[in-house]
Specification:
Blueprint: H1 20-38, H2 44-48, H3 56-59, H4 71-85, E1 95-102, H5 109-116, E2 123-129, H6 157-170, E3 175-182, E4 186-187, H7 191-199, E5 204-207, E6 240-243, H8 244-252, H9 255-263, H10 279-287, E7 292-294, E8 298-299, E9 320-327, E10 330-337, E11 346-347
Parallel strand pairs: 1-2, 1-3, 5-7, 8-11
Antiparallel strand pairs: 3-6, 4-11, 5-6, 9-10
């Protein structure tokens, strides 16, 4: 017994002390970040205490706060919603409004006369002549001029002329689809093809895409904020066809119209913003992106990469085949370009 060693019993360990100071520090930092996010510091000095990048260090990884809509935005959204939710007005005699934006006379008026012939009652013609009164050779164009104002290329007056044409065309309740054309445009198919194609399409054919280059988003002005953000800025060809509901939306818009009128104009902010290439694409991207095709049914050749599209001259005539067909006693015109232009109805 004397040699027996008594093993020590299990030691009683005191409970571990919780790192209270770490918990307090984490809580303090979390509270500070939340407060800084909700009430961001107004001075640059306060921002740079925490980062050389300034206040962005706190917002780079946090979700952006939800912006409160302006009064104009609320009004605009109510009007847009009501117009889009209103069933289209049914017409017993639906027509297409062909709206010509031209400086004067139409050099292809005889061609359009052949296109329209035999389809009376299914179309309307409107002419915005910005420089001189046109001289007509077709009865379909007589007395179809609307009140016009001078139009300058690249200026906002182009948008005003488009809206003016739409306003006059909307006065006729039978006009259900609206086509913008220039004096250099010609039809690529006969009237029946164009009529059925547009009337049966439940959308508007408005070109709309993102152009990150200097002639796209490079034209954007931050003075359009908060209503128009750069991520929503779009570009597209001027030529469009649109259904009646969308034409009414364009007439009802004052919010985005005023932003483009004031800040998307030649040499605004040192840039040359071509409003007719940006207003409608951006507008419909914001109010009804699912209602447009994002492409135009008018073919324009920009392959020369100039300010104006390629002009077809006498040597190009061999590229066009004219076909006159007798159908139900009426002459029908079809113009076919050599190439795959199936999605196009017109060429300018």
């Amino acid at each position: 017994m004397g040699d027996t060693k008594i093993l020590p019993g299990s030691r009683h360990r005191s409970p571990l002390k919780r790192p209270i100071w770490i918990i307090l520090m984490v809580s303090f930092v979390s509270l500070f970040l939340v407060c800084a996010y909700i009430y961001p510091p107004n001075s640059d000095v306060a921002c740079y205490v925490f980062s050389s990048r300034g206040c962005k260090v706190l917002t780079d990884w946090l979700p952006p706060p939800k912006r409160e809509l302006t009064d104009e935005e609320i009004i605009s959204r109510v009007v847009v919603r009501d117009i889009l939710d209103t069933p289209p007005v049914e017409s017993k005699n639906p027509k297409i409004a062909f709206m010509f934006l031209t400086p004067g006379s139409l050099p292809f008026e005889k061609l359009w006369d052949m296109f329209f012939r035999g389809n009376e009652g299914r179309f309307s013609v409107y002419i915005h002549a910005s420089k001189e009164k046109p001289v007509h050779v077709s009865p379909y164009f007589l007395n179809r001029e609307i009140h016009s104002s001078p139009v300058t290329w690249g200026a906002f007056s182009m948008v005003d002329a488009e809206r003016r044409l739409l306003a006059y065309a909307l006065k006729d309740p039978d006009n259900q689809h609206f086509v913008l054309l220039s004096d250099s445009c010609i039809p690529l198919h006969n009237f029946d093809y164009v009529y059925n194609y547009l009337m049966h399409a439940n959308m508007s054919f408005i070109d709309c895409f993102v152009d990150p280059g200097p002639h796209g988003n490079g034209r954007y002005s931050t003075r359009m904020l908060p209503e128009v953000e750069e991520k929503d800025f779009r570009k597209g060809a001027q030529w469009f066809t649109m259904r009646r509901q969308h034409a009414l939306l364009v007439m009802a818009d004052s919010l985005y119209y005023s932003r483009f009128r004031d800040y998307c104009r030649p040499f605004a902010d040192g840039k040359n913003c071509i409003a007719d290439e940006h207003y409608l694409p951006t507008f419909f991207n914001l109010v009804d992106p699912g209602g447009i095709a994002n492409w135009s049914v008018t073919r324009v050749d920009w392959s020369e990469r100039k300010w104006h599209p390629k002009s077809y001259r006498a040597q190009d005539v061999t590229e066009i085949a004219f076909s006159l067909n007798l159908w139900n006693g009426h002459m029908k015109l079809e113009v076919i370009f050599n190439g795959n232009f199936g999605q196009y109805s017109f060429s300018c």
